[in-house]
Amino acid sequence: MSLRPRKTWSLLGTALLLALLVVLGRLTWEARTGLARGRALETEGATLEAIAHHLDAARAFYPGNPYAALAFNRLETLAFPSPDAPPNADVERRALEALRTAVLATRSIYLPHAAAFRKANERLATLYARWESVGQADTPESLARRESFHRDKLNALPGPRPLPALVALAGLFLWVGGAWAFMTRGLTPALKLNRGPALGAVLAFVMGLALFLLGLAW
After folding, report:
1. What are 47-101's pLDDT values in tens digits?
2. Is pTM beyond 0.70 here?
3. What would you report as the CA-atom Rg of the chain, rounded to the nearest whole angstrom?
4. How far apart are CA 148 and CA 132, in angstroms?
5. Coil/strand/helix, residue 56
6. What is the C-alpha separation between 63 and 49, in angstroms, rounded?
7. What's the burial of 133, exposed, middle or buried (CB within 10 Å: 0-12/13-18/19+)?
């Protein structure tokens, strides 16, 4: 009996490790492919199309992914060009928006590239305010109010609503717990069905899945 839990934990650990390696491999491949395509398009002069691929690469982020970091650095270069670079308003705006999207798409318990995110918001607020004032007799005060409005909107981080997030999280734990209970309690050492515990595990699995989907759709 003492060998069964040890074997189960070993199998579970191996499965989790393999799943993690698959996810990291997929993200690395996506970032590498997106970065290569973006560089190729820049060489061809299709900078706007290149920005979309750099964004895809930057979104394939995990701590230590070198290709995602290189793609984000390229977005920074396009978003904040050097003073001697030829001006291109469309490229600058698209790069700023892509940089901001990449940061929001990869945030978790912390905000990656927070300084670049705030800098992009400042620049976008200025650009948006200026575009809105085209053809209008704006005073410096009204332009400043426009900039402040856009800055506040851009700096406001969207987040999940607490109750749906808690429902989804509870459902996830119940879902995974039901699967774990079925493997450890619902089957005998001879892999025969242990009806009582198995039924409880299946009910927990179904209820957990339903709560998880409800929390996501809420």
Report:
1. 999 999 999 999 998 888 999 999 999 999 999 988 887 888 899 999 999 999 9
2. no
3. 25
4. 13
5. helix
6. 26
7. middle
Q: How far apart are CA 133 and CA 101, in angstroms?
A: 25
Cα-Cα-Cα-Cα dihedral sign, residues 135, 139, 144, 146: negative
Query: Which pairs with CB-CB distance under 8 Å and at least 24 residues apart come from 153-157?
Result: 154/100, 154/121, 154/124, 154/125, 155/118, 155/121, 157/104, 157/107, 157/111
Tokens 């800098």 label which residue?
Answer: 119
Distances (CA, A) of 176 to 115, 128, 206: 37, 46, 10
**Which single residue is written with the structure tokens 């650009």?**
127
Per-residue CA distances from 41 to 114, 126, 210 (Å): 28, 29, 44
Hey, where are the domains in the chain?
Answer: 22-155, 162-217
What are residue 11's phi and psi, to 5 degrees? Answer: -65, -40
Cα within 13 Å of Cα(209), Cβ side: 7
